[in-house]
Amino acid sequence: MGKPFDFHGGVKPQTNKAQSTREAIAVASLPSQMVVPLHQSIGGTPHPLVQAGERVLKGQRIGAADGNVSAAVHAPTSGTVIAVEPRVMAHTSGLAMLSVVIEPDGEDAWLPLSPSNYHSLQGDEIRDLLRDAGVVGLGGAVFPSHLKLKAGKDKRMTLVLNGAECEPYITCDDMLMRERAQDILRGGQIMRHMLGADTVLIGIEDNKPEAAAAMRAAVAALGEDMQVVVVPTRYPAGGAKQLIRSLTGIEVPHGKRSTDYGVQCFNVGTAYAIHETINLGRPLISRIVTVSGNVERPRNYEVLFGTPMSHLLRLAGAKPDTDRTVMGGPMMGYLMPKPDVPVVKATNCVIAGSRALFPPPPPEMPCIRCTACVDVCPADLQPHEMYWFARAKNFGKTQEYHVFDCIECGCCAYVCPSHIPLVDYYRFAKTEIWARERNKDAADQARERFEFRTLREQREKEEKAAKLAVKAAAGRQTAEKRVVPPAPPPAAPADARPAAVAAARAEGALAVTADAAPGAAPSPDPKKALIEAAIERARQQREAIAPKNTENLTAAQKAEIVEIEARRAKIRERARTHDEDARQ
Amino acid sequence: MNNSPYIRKPASIQTVMLKVLLALLPGVAAYVWFFGVGVLINLVLASLAALLGEALMLKARGRPVGIFLADLSAVVTAWLVVLTFPPIAPWWLTVSATLFAIVVVKQLYGGLGQNPFNPAMAGYAIMIVAFPALMSQWPHGGLGLAAQLDLIAGGLRDLDAITGATPLDALRTGLRESATPTTVQQVIAGSPAFGLVGGKGWEWIAAGYLLGGLWLWQQRIITWHLPLAFLAGIAIVSGALWAIDPGAFASPLLHLVAGGTMLGAFFIVTDPVSGPTTPRGKLYFAAGAALITVVIRAFGAYPDGIAFAVLLMNICAPLLDMKNQPPVFGHKDD
To answer: The pTM is what?
Structure first.
């Protein structure tokens, strides 16, 4: 099968892949300390399951998935947990996140493993196994795999295994395909089973003939109906959207699930991890990592998560002029805040960088609208227009020009003759838009809360008014029966004034009062009658209550009152003279 | 620099502009061959004026002078001014046109990348309005170096002795100003300005520009849209007029090789800064410029209309881009 489709744009930077494919994958030695961040995938941060001082076995779950959009984290080796605390994570920001720090005991003793037969499991059972084994996309996006492994509803599904690996320097998928092709396909069998996919396409760039040959041989050996498709080497041929387009002609728009278009794409490393998890019962605790760049012995290593990158750089022999550590490739990679951040699930490559390897860009010049960026954009965007809009902080326009369809592949910045860091402008626009949306959401929530509160208060008032109106009406009826009320009805006194006020308010507010008081007098305006009744009753009650205070007092009490009044008079007098003094 | 990509293609504005200058060389060589070295002198003068004007303005605007002079965009503007001007134009005409292009049209609008109008064409337009006679005096083939130098230095012009007319000019004059009704064929037969298919010598200059332009396309400095649409537009519009009355209108072939058609197609309508950037926008832009060019040539008061056509279309460029945004990945059915 040839190359049926193509994607627009792309660039051909120096691949720099040959250096790290000369030798077979080596197992990286155990470091003296491992830092396993709990948050290593898209979605919720797993809860720690261990405490400092606890002994853990290799493969033991140390972080439980937080909900379904999350993936568990495991101890990469046996040893002692020495801390559960925030540590600087493998991200340019240098922010710290909760991590489990393990001191290996050197035994590397596995937890008892329980392999499964996927044929005998339900889809949900396999998905739970994958989530709890911490399987996420190993191409770099680290999206929890179990969420993507659902059969299409009414579409014939195509499974795409991504072995294109288009970023310069990175060869971990290449080496994995060369050395463990059959196991990748065994993972692919499980994925095909879960997706109900009738077509399986394995996309590999034509600069990896050994990997393509190994995969073809594995397909033949397993007798699987899968096709290896070789695509031309052109960055970013391995972008999921680009590869899907190259192999199937389907364009999955931004923000849409590819399942809805009848296709699902996984990295070959993820397929391998699924094989390990289901068929062998091993959770995801390691991956293949390319160590390259400014090092003496570029090579691929099988690395346990939590291993400091500096440990790998030592193994590969970083040269003395190394001044930075990059995770990922030079096109989309991230600068690490320091070399000893841990290898995580997203770490496909660690590059020792230097000034000579990644020279600082020449000074930024103005955009001359040459459209070199348009020619290379694999998302068919107008990068120069988005740049002008982002620069002008016209974020609405950047969105209109589909800034969120930008995959940040870096092709535009790579070719720009003005050396404009274009991707930075799009990242800036995106984060600004997100921030504004968050602010707007917060403001919307606050407004909703306020409106709800106002509504609730009003409703309470109305209900109270209605209740009181009913009572008032009842009271008036009793009052009508009695000629002269000798004393106020026992229930009323304290409520009298509020009742009057509420009733007065109720006049303008609601018809509820009228409905709620069906027993009221059949006067032409029942509301008004009710209010008048309430006011009248309140007045009577005030009159009735007021004198009560000083009636029936003992002689001693009366004398006390007189005394108090005299004292008050004296104070008032003194205050008045004081005021006059002050005025003079 | 903290963010990816950490590698860059070795490309710069300087390389782009240098390639444009290189691409102009075959046309310039043919120019010198047929009209003498006057054009070279004007090229040097205009380049110096452009660099000086740019430097002063950059200084005044507080911008780094060195990197912006080194980008060579001012030199490209200067060369385009000179190549649209008569090679024996007096030095002050070329220099002031170049300074106007650089200082007013480019720098006052914000410098490199900011000008809404094509600077060279604005320089041409203002001078042909102000000095129509000087702007249409081309030397005849045999004018020597000393005579050309004298004219450029501002020497007196004995028009009959020094000048021939450009083919388009000869055509205009022949058709409109002769006492008796004349056909295109009669004008061509009666004037020494015409050669094989277009103006004498002009065919070769046009071929030189075509060669350079194709190389620019091969180098991916320009896309095919603008030149092709411009040339096709010229051919179709002039062809339609010619079909209506071959006696009153010149043939499409003459239009294609005469005047600034080839220079315009590959070096002027392709100016990225003042032109459109979308594929469809480019097609409309070039077709519109071609239409206006032929209309001015056939009915207007000026022998050639590319400058006005390009300036008019510059006004439309932002709108053309806005209305012709190509579909984005995954949104092609929207």
So the answer is: 0.81
